[in-house]
Amino acid sequence: MRLPFSIPDHDRRLIPDGRLAGIMPWIIAIMLFLTALSAATAIRLGYSVQANSSGLVRQATVQLLEPDPAARATDQKRIAAWLERFPGVSAVRAVPESEARQLLEPWIGSAVEDAGIPVPALIDIAFASPPDNAQLRALRIQLVRQTSNARVDTHSSWIAPLLSFLRTILWIALSVLLLLLVATAATVALSVRAALNTHRSTIEIMHMMGSTDLQVARLFQRRIALDSLFGGGLGLSAAILVLVLVGQRFSALGSGLLAGESFPIIGWLLLALIPLAVTGLAMLMARWTVLSALKRML
Amino acid sequence: MQSVAEFDNVGLRYGTDAETLSDISFKLFPGSFYFLTGPSGAGKTSLLKLLYLAHRPSRGAIHMFGQDIVTMPRARLPGFRRRIGVVFQDFRLVPHLSAFDNIALPLRIAGIAERDLLGPVGEMLSWIGLTERADARPATLSGGEQQRVAIARAVIGRPELLVADEPTGNVDPDMAVRLLQLFAALNRLGTTVVVATHDIHLLQEIEGAQMVRLDKGRLSDPTGSLKYPPRPLVLRS
């Protein structure tokens, strides 16, 4: 397949490449580095928002505040069995007491084990779909009929502000991404105009020999494409390095709030497409700039 | 007979200045050889620019190869420019291309395959005596060598109209005669040749050549010894 920037050697010599010597590839590398980071942020946040929206908001925890350990254990089993039959509930898990104590340990220390402090019995439940207020109210009313010392904590109540915050950051990241693409396009246009001025005499000679506007535009498209691919590859490599390092640090936090698994594969694929998209954008800008400039010549 | 170029009451003005060319009317016929003479500032280069489609006139009509180029969409002009060979006064070689690549440029622009242009470009280099310097860039060539490359570039595509602006200004007399012989050979093959020059001695070198004289932007009557004119230069009233 012949790529649009694959042109014969003799045509390449008409507009000598500036590549590593020129500033354009390095500017594109920086722009693409920032673009890739913005895109990664947007992808990561979008993934987290989606995961939390579909996961945590479907979950709730039932607390049984019974001081007597034996009664608490009995109630936990009974209520868990009752919850499994409750309409809309898809999964029920009675949290072992040892696990509940571990959850409290960061706040009240190991005394929680030794001092025999009573901890509530916990039952995690998951709804088949995010529950609405009526469904939760019905659950609370019927649960109190089963045992008066039960409490229902929905995850959606505390996850909602976080999701709202994540969505705001997501939109900011997308806006930055868009601005960077606009800035890249403007940079390409300026670069092509500078190159047009530099090579004006060559273009005029070609023009006088019957070269068409598209023939001239193709020369610049190719030059910009090579600059973009080189700069894009460099910028993306740097961005990937940063993302991997940040990912490692982030994993070490052990936070589940940002759906802390690895960066999604689709995200890596989208990042890999960015240099190609920027190259395509740069070629379009180069073509448009050259054709606009040549129209002013006879 | 269809003319190669027909000017009818043509005027050319740069910006808001006075007209550089005024009331130019003539026809150039296929296979003819014309010398364009006149003092410096007479408008020779401007007239040539109209001939090689670098400008459109400010007024009047120009037909090239039977087509009205004044109103012609610019997208169609490249096709007409490929039928015209131009030797610029300042050579205008592409500085980062070798002599070979400069000469091959019109053929490559016209889409000629590499295998088909190696022979003609090689022959042309041989004819102008620069075979050994095929890879040399213009900056390393003397003025005369650059001029020979510029002429080779103009004639390599066997143009229907060859326009040359002082083509022998930087070469020695022998080379000037050789170059004119090249022009004459092309002319015999059917190319219409227009050479702008100050050198009145050159006029004697081409049998049958006609002279067009410009003075202060206006065309004078043809003068000089027009030996064996093949066809008369037609001045329009």
Written overview of the protein:
- The complex is a heterodimer of chains A (298) and B (237).
- Chain A is an alpha+beta fold.
- Chain A has 2 domains: 9-53 and 160-294, no CATH class; 66-148, no CATH class.
- In chain A, 69% of the residues lie in helices and 8% in strands.
- Chain A has helices spanning 9-14, 24-54, 69-84, 97-108, 111-114, 133-146, 155-198, 200-208, 213-253, 265-294, and strands spanning 59-64, 89-95, 121-127, 150-154.
- A 4-stranded antiparallel beta sheet of chain A has the order 2-3-1-4.
- Chain A is elongated, with a radius of gyration of 30 Å.
- The mean pLDDT of chain A is 83.
- With 237 residues, chain B is of the alpha/beta class.
- Chain B has a domain at 93-158.
- Helix content of chain B is 28%, strand content 24%.
- Chain B contains 6 helices and 11 strands.
- Chain B has helices spanning 44-51, 77-81, 99-109, 114-127, 143-155, 173-188; strands at residues 5-13, 19-28, 33-37, 59-64, 67-68, 84-87, 161-165, 192-196, 210-215, 218-219, 234-235.
- In chain B, β1 (5-13) and β2 form a beta hairpin.
- The chains are: A alpha+beta (298), B alpha/beta (237).
Summarize the model shown.
The complex is a heterodimer of chains A (298) and B (237). By secondary structure, chain A is of the alpha+beta class. In chain A, 69% of the residues lie in helices and 8% in strands.
Quick tags:
heterodimer; A: 298 residues; alpha+beta; 10 helices; 4 strands; B: 237 residues; alpha/beta; globular
**N-to-C SSE series of chain B?**
EEEHEEHEHHHEHEEEE
Per DSSP, what share of the residues of chain A sits in E-state strands of 2 or more residues?
Answer: 5-15%
Structural class of chain A: alpha+beta
Uncertain stretches of 5 or more adjacent residues of chain A: none
Widest β-sheet, arrangement of strands of chain B:
6-7-8-3-9-10
What spatial form of chain B do the alpha-carbon principal axes imply?
Answer: globular
Shape of chain A: elongated
Outline the biggest β-sheet of chain A: 4 strands, antiparallel
Distance between the termini of chain A: 34 Å
